[in-house]
Prior knowledge:
The structure holds two protein chains of two kinds.
Chain A: E1 4-8, H1 12-24, E2 28-32, H2 35-44, E3 49-53, H3 61-71, E4 77-81, H4 86-94, E5 99-102, H5 107-120
Parallel strand pairs in A: 1-2, 1-3, 3-4, 4-5
Helix pairs in contact in A: 2-3
Chain B: H1 2-8, E1 12-17, H2 21-24, E2 36-41, H3 44-53, E3 57-63, H4 71-82, E4 88-92, E5 98-102, E6 105-111, H5 116-135, H6 145-151, H7 155-181, H8 185-201, H9 205-216, H10 220-244
Parallel strand pairs in B: 1-2, 1-3, 3-4, 4-6
Antiparallel strand pairs in B: 5-6
Helix pairs in contact in B: 3-4, 7-8, 7-10, 8-9, 9-10
Amino acid sequence: MKDRILIVEDNSMVVKSLHFKLTKDGYETVVASDGREALKVLKEQTFHLLITDLMLPFVSGIELIEFVKNNIPDLPIIVLSTSTQEEVIMDAFNLGVEDFITKPFSPNELSLRVRRTLQKK
Amino acid sequence: MFIDSALEMEIHNILIISNQPEVSDKFIHLQEKDDWDIHFYKDSFSAIQYLKNNNDIHFIIFDEVCGPLDPFQLADYLISELSLNIPFIVVGEDVNEHKYVREGSLFLFVKKPLIKEKLAIIEQIIEENLIKEDNGSNEKSYSLNYLKTLSDNDEEFIQESLYVFKESVLDKLNECRESIKNKEFKNVRKIAHNIKPSFEMLENTRCKNICNTICYKATETEINGLFEILEEEYQKIVRELREDFPELA
Lengths: 121, 249
């Protein structure tokens, strides 16, 4: 069975690239374009990894991470960030996220970090 | 005359970060080039200390086994803290050889062992980049390098991505214009943050920088002017895309 990854991101180009690369790497992906949709999907389906942006409409990335850590603690999280979001990334790490990737991501870096995070589970 | 030309000659500084003598030794011969100055460091922290005081470095050759920062973390630090955008050559045992541009920085990955042919390629890449830098660039407003690398040249993916760029950024720019009209500057900054990666994926550094400024630095009175420049740049990219890909029109 393929590992299922939930991508939460509101930039269509980034979503398209993540979906393309992760599908090519053999994962099944589901996309939510805002935090509210992500919460709904997380309550209904099971995933092996969450990849999320931090600045999201309706429910922020930090709120989403808090929800996961409180309700689905075994679900690892990789944060998508920009290099200028140092403070927010630190907040995310303090909440227990496993890793972060800077946008736009390097294809090899993404593959490696996803593989490592899923292996650590 | 020689003295004159020597005085005029620009020195290109290359930083080698490696704690493996067998790697560093491979690059010693580069010191023989008149206009290249080679600096050796054993870890990324000591390289940062050097870069804090010397920001005219033209290339970094990074041995993957060196810590504590990996090449991406070092590149991020150099961009965000020192505003330095330096191309990297990353050498390692476990890397896939490819060229990649991230945040406007070139990354060339080379797999060890560093045999003669690979060293020649590294030297050639550095030279090409230095020439390009010296001549200034007169290139297009966009590049497909990132999308090509990401997709292994998948034409369908590239075309679809360009269409997504054209449509999604246009929607966001329209939303941005409305927000400026309504003086909702917080939303304008959010939109700039949202579309920044789209410009980065087409390697347009100018738009990326404008988005960054709107996001984090611009005052409310500066935002409108910056938005107009961003919109013009977007139109320019789309014009060039339509010329190159008529099916996008």
